[in-house]
Backbone:
């Protein structure tokens, strides 16, 4: 049975530097997968490759059974793959509402619209008219997620949403995830902070220096095993 | 090509050129002066755009300033003509400082137009100044007491010195710390600033040096032509030629402008009789190069065949590890 | 009272400069490209209009109905066919548009000769409104100004109220992230260039009616448009309008003092703004 997303023998380079070495990953529809690993392990590179910002140097990425490796990021967005990039990257000169409206550029049908997104993040509703650059880190992150939701994606990729945020803000974001999962959206979370990720994820994949060091269900692994895979201290 | 052969070839070429007054007619000498000043201008533009990342379309300002400063010093100030050439270059360099203070507030494409506006300002100032001849232009009469052949020879040697000097200056600058700094700036400006490169000072330095070179070129050009027309001295066509030469030859290399100048000059001699269509063809070639070969012809050759005439690139040679120095890795 | 008239003339001319500038700054904002052929393209529009007037007997203003869509198409094709492939380095688009400017100027000169032309709008050009005893405002300059403001308003509404406008602004903010929400950058660039040339076509035709034009005049117009953008401040359409007006008034006042000083005064005011208020007179507070 083919998964919603299949990453097959994926290698990726930045110039001469190889960031991913034949990485494999299968994600079923409706799953929530956490991709964890230390800084520089290749997590963001993996998401960028799935989203289409980076062309693979080897291997394939298949979505809904069809290869998307040759499609650019904007095509993949139209197919239903949305990436919330590292660093939030909301559009600073557009207002909250405008950021959300432009997020619906692909015109994909689905349950998400401006009103529902603002219900999901009520603290954003109060700032609906503010320009992006005026928002706090947590607000920007919520906006970035909301903007991605507006495209009604089948696969939502979240790249280090907790980075640089206070624990309270992180908690607020993760509290919104169940509502997103309830719509049947498939989630891939990249996190350096393992704690929050393991709480929501049904499956984890741990990357170490561009390779998959460990993959499976969180409950199948001991804490020690995960830590070792994370830091690369395997015997 | 070893360094010895390189040096030998260069030496021979320079010797031949230095002796040109022996084997060339006065007309040919004038052509060579034109070629050498073009070479200088191209090297200056290359220094600006290829190494400092400053795309200027207003260098004609300093060509014109050099020309008119030369006239003013010689005609009004009674300065010895050959000395006036040097001082004219310095005048252009001096004026480039306040200009830099203004245009450096702009970035990239807007910087380019800003330099053009500065050139236009000087153009209009000259047009409106009667003692500089206004729109009618001026004649260089203060050299008439120098014998014609002598003047031609000296003008030629000055042009040769300028051309060789421009190449040498670029070569020396780029091999020095300034050159390293410029390459760093070109590759990653913020990164360069982060490691302590004074980006602004480096860029201003290059801008002033380029103004100096263009000013000298302007003065020598009109020492040769003997009549200055403001529209011709300040025309943006100078920039067009510089850009074509450098882009055809290869941006960011030392050989590029030399090759480009020769090609361009040959094309000019062959085809300028076709007038407008020749210029149109140049424009089309510029567009084609921008799209397909942005690094220029020599740039393409250099990349493809890993060739360079001037030893500019720094090579890292890893020192061989001696066996007794090898460090044991800790037991896994 | 000549001074009041002079200033009014300057303001009305300024609206046109602002319209020139709007297209230039739209393209710069969206793709960080300065179109060095912008002024020459306005001259192309004027010549297209001239052809329609001379061979189809159309009234100059009416030719806009054809010239504007044609110039939009020219912009779209230009971007999609050439400039989209010359974006790899900072120099490449400058080089490509510089080459285009040279090609345009010379081809137009071959086709139409270097002579100055004018478009004749008949009585509309010469009639004027009188205010009081000494102040006269020409109908046509007034119409020009109002048209400029209306087009700027339309642009403003496009950018703020439509999805395309939001997409243009999003691409301007962050090209890479724009991809992530499904925006096809290349297509957006082509649309932006099309809109830019459509506005410059309007400006070009109006200027052609108001004064004379010739194949070589594009460079000056490019410079005026650029100066209007910088004086007004980057990132703001209404700032650009203000910048255009300041430039227009400076030129008019300068010309009133001495015929040869009009354009130069504009340049000097531009340089003064650059020296004293480098961000322009009305910059947007947000940095893109």
Residues:
């Amino acid at each position: 049975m083919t998964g919603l997303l299949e990453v097959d023998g994926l290698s990726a380079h930045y110039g001469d530097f190889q960031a991913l070495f034949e990485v494999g990953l299968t994600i079923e529809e409706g799953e929530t997968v956490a991709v964890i690993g230390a800084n520089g392990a290749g997590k963001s590179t993996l998401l960028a490759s799935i989203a289409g910002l980076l062309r693979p140097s080897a291997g394939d990425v298949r979505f809904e059974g069809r290869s998307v490796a040759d499609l650019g990021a904007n095509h993949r967005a139209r197919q239903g793959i949305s990436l919330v990039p590292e660093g939030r990257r909301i559009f600073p000169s557009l207002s909250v509402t405008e950021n959300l409206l432009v997020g619906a550029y692909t015109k994909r049908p689905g349950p998400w619209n401006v009103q529902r997104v603002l219900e999901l993040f009520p603290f954003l509703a109060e700032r609906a008219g503010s320009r992006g650059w005026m928002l706090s880190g947590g607000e920007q992150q919520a906006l970035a997620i909301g903007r991605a939701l507006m495209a009604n994606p089948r696969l939502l990729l979240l790249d280090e949403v907790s980075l640089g945020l206070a624990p309270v803000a992180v908690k607020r974001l993760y509290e919104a995830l169940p509502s997103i999962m309830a719509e049947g959206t498939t989630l891939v979370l990249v996190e350096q902070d393992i704690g929050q990720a393991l709480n929501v994820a049904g499956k984890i994949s741990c990357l170490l220096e561009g390779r998959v060091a460990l993959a499976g269900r969180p409950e199948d692994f001991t804490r020690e095993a995960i830590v070792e895979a994370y830091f690369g201290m395997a015997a | 090509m070893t360094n010895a052969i390189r040096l030998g070839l260069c030496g021979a070429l320079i010797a031949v050129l230095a002796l040109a007054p022996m084997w060339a007619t006065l007309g040919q000498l004038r052509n060579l002066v034109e070629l050498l000043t073009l070479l200088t201008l191209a090297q200056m533009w290359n220094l600006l755009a290829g190494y400092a990342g400053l795309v200027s379309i207003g260098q004609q300002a300093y060509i014109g300033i050099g020309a008119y400063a030369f006239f003013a010093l010689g005609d009004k100030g009674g300065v010895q003509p050959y000395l006036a050439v040097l001082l004219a270059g310095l005048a252009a360099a001096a004026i480039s400082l306040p200009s830099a203070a203004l245009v450096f507030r702009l970035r990239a494409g807007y910087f380019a137009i800003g330099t053009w506006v500065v050139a236009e300002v000087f153009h209009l100032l000259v047009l409106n100044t009667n003692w500089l001849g206004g729109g009618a232009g001026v004649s260089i009469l203060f050299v008439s007491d120098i014998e014609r052949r002598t003047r031609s020879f000296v003008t030629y040697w000055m042009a040769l010195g300028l051309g060789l000097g421009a190449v040498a200056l670029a070569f020396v600058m780029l091999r020095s710390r300034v050159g390293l700094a410029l390459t760093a700036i070109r590759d990653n400006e913020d990164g360069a600033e982060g490691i302590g490169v004074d980006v602004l000072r480096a860029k201003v330095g290059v801008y002033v040096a380029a103004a100096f070179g263009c000013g000298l070129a302007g003065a020598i050009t009109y020492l040769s032509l003997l009549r200055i027309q403001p529209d011709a001295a300040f025309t943006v066509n100078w920039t067009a030629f510089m850009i074509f030469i450098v882009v055809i030859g290869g941006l960011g290399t030392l050989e590029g402008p030399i090759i480009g100048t020769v090609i361009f000059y040959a094309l000019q001699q062959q085809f300028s009789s076709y007038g407008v269509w020749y210029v149109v063809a140049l424009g089309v070639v510029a567009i084609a190069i921008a799209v397909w070969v942005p690094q220029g012809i020599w740039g393409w050759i250099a990349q493809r065949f890993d060739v360079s005439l001037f030893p500019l690139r720094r090579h890292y040679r890893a020192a061989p590890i001696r066996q007794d120095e090898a460090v044991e890795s800790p037991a896994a | 009272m000549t001074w009041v008239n002079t200033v009014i003339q300057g303001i009305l001319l300024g609206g046109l400069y602002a319209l020139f500038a709007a297209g230039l700054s739209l393209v710069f904002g969206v793709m960080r490209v300065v179109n060095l052929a912008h002024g020459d393209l306005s001259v192309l529009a004027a010549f297209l209009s001239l052809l329609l007037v001379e061979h189809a007997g159309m009234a100059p203003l009416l030719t806009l109905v054809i010239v504007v869509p044609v110039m939009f198409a020219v912009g779209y094709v230009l971007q999609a066919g050439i400039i989209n492939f010359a974006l790899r380095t900072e120099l490449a688009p400058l080089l490509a548009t510089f080459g285009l400017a040279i090609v345009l100027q010379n081809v137009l000169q071959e086709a139409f000769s270097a002579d100055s032309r004018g478009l004749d709008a008949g009585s509309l050009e010469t009639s004027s409104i009188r205010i009081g005893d000494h102040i006269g405002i020409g109908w046509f300059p007034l119409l020009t100004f109002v048209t400029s403001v209306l087009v700027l308003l339309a642009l403003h509404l496009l950018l703020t109220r439509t999805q395309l406008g939001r997409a243009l602004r999003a691409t301007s903010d962050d090209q890479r992230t724009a991809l992530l929400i499904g925006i096809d950058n290349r297509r957006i660039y082509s649309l932006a260039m099309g809109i830019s040339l459509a506005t410059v076509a309007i400006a070009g035709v109006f200027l052609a009616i108001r004064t004379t034009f010739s194949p070589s005049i594009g460079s000056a117009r490019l410079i005026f448009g650029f100066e209007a953008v910088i004086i007004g401040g980057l990132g703001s359409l209404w700032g650009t309008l203000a910048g255009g007006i300041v430039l227009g008034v400076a030129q008019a006042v300068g010309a009133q003092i001495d015929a040869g000083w009009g354009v130069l005064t504009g340049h000097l005011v531009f340089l003064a703004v650059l020296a004293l208020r480098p961000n322009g007179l009305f910059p947007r507070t947000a940095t893109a």
Observations:
- The beta strands of chain B are 138-139, 227-228.
- The first strand of chain B starts at residue 138 and ends at 139.
